[in-house]
Amino acid sequence: MLRLLACATTLAAALSHAQQPAAKPADPVTGEAPAEATPAPAPAADGGVAAAAAMGGGSTGTGAAPVAAPPPPPKKIDPKLFDDALNDYFAGNPKAAAPKLFDYTENVPSTDENYAWAQFFLARSLIELKLHHAGAVYLSRIARERTNPQVLTRALEELQQLTDRPHDEAMIDEQVFGALDLGFLSEDVAGYAHYQQGLVDLRVGNERWATTHFSKLPEGSTEASRAKYAMLVTRLKQARKDLPKEMVDQFFELAKDEKLTREARNDAMLAVARLRYEAGDFPGALEAYNLVKLGPLEPGRAALYLEEAWTRYQLGQVHAAMGLLTTLDAPSFREEFLPDKFLLKALIYRDLCHYLPAKRSAKELTRRYAESLDAVRERDDLTRDPRLLRAASARGSTQRARKFLESLELEGEQLGRYAGTFGERMFGYMTRVYDLARAEAVRVYQRRLQESVRVEADKLLRAAEQVRLMEYEVGLKLYERVKKGSKLVALIEEEALKSNQVSFKFADEYWNDELRTYRFSLKSRCIEETAR
Amino acid sequence: MSRLCALPSFVALALVVSAPAFAQTQELENPGVTAAVQDRPYRLLHELDLWFGVLPLDAFYTGIYAQVGYVYHFTDRFAWQVGRGAYGLAARSSLRGELERNFGVQPTANDEVQFFVGSDVMWKPFYGKLAVMNRAVIHGEIHLLAGATLFRFTNSGFRPGINIGGGGRIFVNKYVSFRLDITHNVVLPTGGGTTSFGNVLTVNLALALNFGGND
Question: Whole-prediction pTM value?
Answer without folding.
Answer: 0.71
